[in-house]
Amino acid sequence: MQRVLVVEDSKVVQQVLRHLAAHYLDVDVDFAWSLKEGISLIAKHEYTLALVDLTLPDAMNGEVAKYTLSKNIPTVVLTSKIDEYIRQQMLELGVVDYVVKDNRDSYHYAIKLVAQLLRNHGCKALVADDSVLSRTLMKQMLEKQLFEVSDAHDGEQALQMLKDDPEIKLLLTDYAMPTMDGFELVKAVRNFRGRDDLAIIGLSGAGKHGLSARFIKYGANDFLTKPFMNEEFHCRVMQTMEQLALIADIKESAYRDHLTGLYNRRYFYQYAEKVLKHVEQDNVLALLDIDFFKNINDQFGHEAGDQALKQVTSFLKTKFDDFTIARIGGEEFAVVLDNMGLEKAELRLNTFREQLAEHAFSINGEPYSLTMSIGITPFSKVSLTGAMRLADKALYQAKQQQRNCVVSLQSN
User: Fold this and answer.
1) Which of 159, 257, 313, 331 has the highest CB neighbour count under 10 A?
2) Where in this protein does the record say 4-aspartylphosphate is found (predicted)?
């Protein structure tokens, strides 16, 4: 579990940081006023990252950063002034980055930097470069940013590694490499990994004009000229990964139902098509519909109906947290029980149905009971349209029979 330590002695600055952390960081954040208090907190907790003031009343010469780094805590430094001596001092210490405290925006930048570093934590990156020294340097710099880093000595090796591991989210590739250069690598990678799924930063030595434009036209997100400053490398990587995260957030938002937070019909159909490609495994498609839902809206109003949908959603999540659930209509839900046979799925859904009927829901503060009718069908070696038609027919039969039951149908 991620946890952040902030050490800052200014009441005003700490108040600003607390406010921004509450808005941007979805992790535990501990605040300390001094080195002594920071040491005490470090003794009690394991920290993923530290954001510390370079100068404190009991640590005037950066001792707090030295201490956090000695405890292997990646550290971002806040400083009220910067000169070449202080810059070199921080680089030699091995801090991730430094932020100059000169206006409110700098605190905003610092917290957003921490948020991105936390997203980097455990994220996979790949460095492709034929120079051992260059690979080692970039690997160390990326590891400071909390990436899990692999390296490749040429384009062909990098390409194979990317094919083998779809979890790699960042590629840094040099231009001049044997067997396959950086351009050819980027073009080959973009055949199966898009810009919204894998970030690529191209690299090349100084003096080679036009390479940056060609890299980007072939599919790179950004470009760096070697030799580069630590801060430039850090900023380019962070900005590139932030863009990737923003795109992921936008896509996630587009695939979510605004009321329940479940996946919506659009996502469900895309996901279901992927499941159908695994022809070697058994799957079951279930359609679930709340019985007499119209009565809730008629009796209590549409806001009460929204309450009911949210409560049913919460109950569904607790019972099917290992499967994909979607809201595909007003009071209709879909669940794909992948890698499961029909008999086992029917048993599990009947257990769910019984537990749902016994569960005490609340509508406008009043106790209320709900039931669901469920239609299921095998979901392998069939078309999505055919499976949906069968599951919908089974659901209709469940509604016609007695409601609060499970009906299964199979194609002939």
Assistant:
1) 159
2) 53, 174
CA distances from 98 to 53, 144, 390, 402 (A): 10, 13, 60, 66
Mean pLDDT of 121-133: 95
**Burial tier of 64 (Cβ tally within 10 Å: 0-12, 13-18, 19+):** buried
For residue 395, with 0-12 CB atoms within 10 Å meaning exposed, 13-18 middle and 19 or more buried, which class applies?
buried
pLDDT digits (tens, 9 = 90+) for 19-34: 999 999 999 999 999 9
* Pair of tokens at residue 61: 């010469």
DSSP conformation class of 256: B
Establish whether the linkage from the previous residue to 227 is cis, with ω within 30° of 0: yes
Contact yes or no for 387/376 (Cβ under 8 A): no
Give the integer Cα–Cα distance in Å for 311 and 330: 14
Secondary element (H or E) of residue 149: strand 148-152
For residue 401, give Cα distances in angstroms to 230, 394, 396, 404, 407. 70, 10, 9, 9, 9
**Residues 15, 353: Cα–Cα separation, whole Å:** 49
303: tokens are: 């806001």
Q: CA 39, CA 41: separation in Å to the nearest integer?
A: 5
Q: How many CA atoms lie within 13 A of 364 on its CB side?
A: 9
Structure tokens, 291: 């019985």
Domains detected in the chain: 3-119 (3.40.50.2300), 122-254 (3.40.50.2300), 265-408 (3.30.70.270)
Instruction: Name residue, tokens 């009991």.
Output: 58
Q: Report the alpha-carbon distance of residue 132 to residue 54 in Å, rounded.
A: 34
d(CA 404, CA 348): 14
Structure tokens at 123: 């994220």
How confident is the model at residue 412, as a pLDDT?
A: 67
Amino acid at residue number 256: R
Q: Which is nearest to 323 in space by CA: 337, 302, 306? A: 337
- How far, in Å, CA of 382 to CA of 252, rounded? 28
Q: Distances in Å between the alpha carbon of 157 and those of 163, 177, 191, 381, 386?
A: 10, 11, 16, 36, 43
Predicted TM-score of the model (pTM):
0.75
